[in-house]
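Office hours follow-up: a student asked to see two folded examples consecutively, so here they are.
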Amino acid sequence: MSSTRRRVQAFKVKRAFGDVVEGVALVSREGFSPRYDLDRWSGLISRPGHALEGQNLKDKILITPSAKGGIAAGWAFYDIKAKGIAPKAFVFGVTNPVMVQGAVFAHITITEGWSRDPYALVKTGDVVRVDPRRRTVEVIERKERGEKREERGEKREERGKTPRARSLP
C-alpha cells in the first residue's frame, strides 16, 4: 500500500490572537484601511484603484502587508463585525496597537509578522487555516488556477465586455 503525503504550505506569524478559523484567502500586496478602503455597509473594498477594489471581505482571510489607520479604523472592526460583514481573520505583515485592540474587541482573529513570504505560498481563492495558538497560517486547499480565468471571462461577458488582446513587444 503506497501513501502519498501532501506537502503542507504554511508560515509562522510572530504574534496572534483569536480563534482558529478557516476560510478563503483574499491576498493583496497593498495595505488595508477599514476606514478609507472599505465600504462598511457592504464589506466591499471600495477605494478606487485599490488592488482589491470590488472584492468582498465577508468571511474571508485578509492577507495584506500592513494595517493603515488609527482610532477610527480600530472601531470600524467592531462595526463590520456587528453588521455581519467582517472577515474571519486579518493576517498583517505589520499592524498597530489600535488595530489589534479593535480586532480583539470585535472578536476577529488577527496576526502580525511573517516568517516567510506569504505571497509565494498563498493566492486569492486558496482556503487557509489561521491558528493563533500555534501561530501558523496554513494552506489547506488550493484554488484551481484555471477557474479564476474562467470566472474573469464570465464576468466580462456579464458586463458585455470582451477581453482585450495583448500586443506583443
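And the second, which I mentioned at the end of office hours:
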Amino acid sequence: MGEPFVSKPLGQTKELEKKSEQKEKKESFWTTTEKESLKEQYGCEILVENGSPADVQTREAPTDASIITYTVDGKEHQDLSRGTRVKLFDMYYDKFTNVKRIEYGLGNIKPNLWGYQGGTSPKKKKRK
C-alpha cells in the first residue's frame, strides 16, 4: 500500500544533530546588564532575542508583544519584545540604528496574566 517508514542511517542522524546544535548557538546582541536596565530606561522587555521566525511568532506570549526586525552587518534579525511602539523603536534605534519593521506579535495571553504563577491555595479544614 505505502512505503514503510524508514529512518536515516546512524551516520546521517549524528550529522543532522551537529548541524542543529550549531544553529542553536545564536548571537546575543544584548548584554545581561543591558537587558536588566531596559525596563527602567525604556519600559520595555525582550522576550525572545535573535529568534527564528517560529520562535518569534509563538502563541505563548502576551498580546502586547511586538516583533521587531532589524539588521546587523547586513543580516536581518528578529526579536519579540514588550513595550509601546515608540519606546521599542527608541530602544532598538539607540542600539542598532537600523530598524526595519515593528509588527504585532501573535501571542494570545492577556498581559496582566503574563508571568502569573498560581499560588498554592491553603488546604481546607475538614469538619469533624
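Two things to take away from it. The first strand starts at residue 45 and ends at 48. The chain is about 30% helix and 20% strand.
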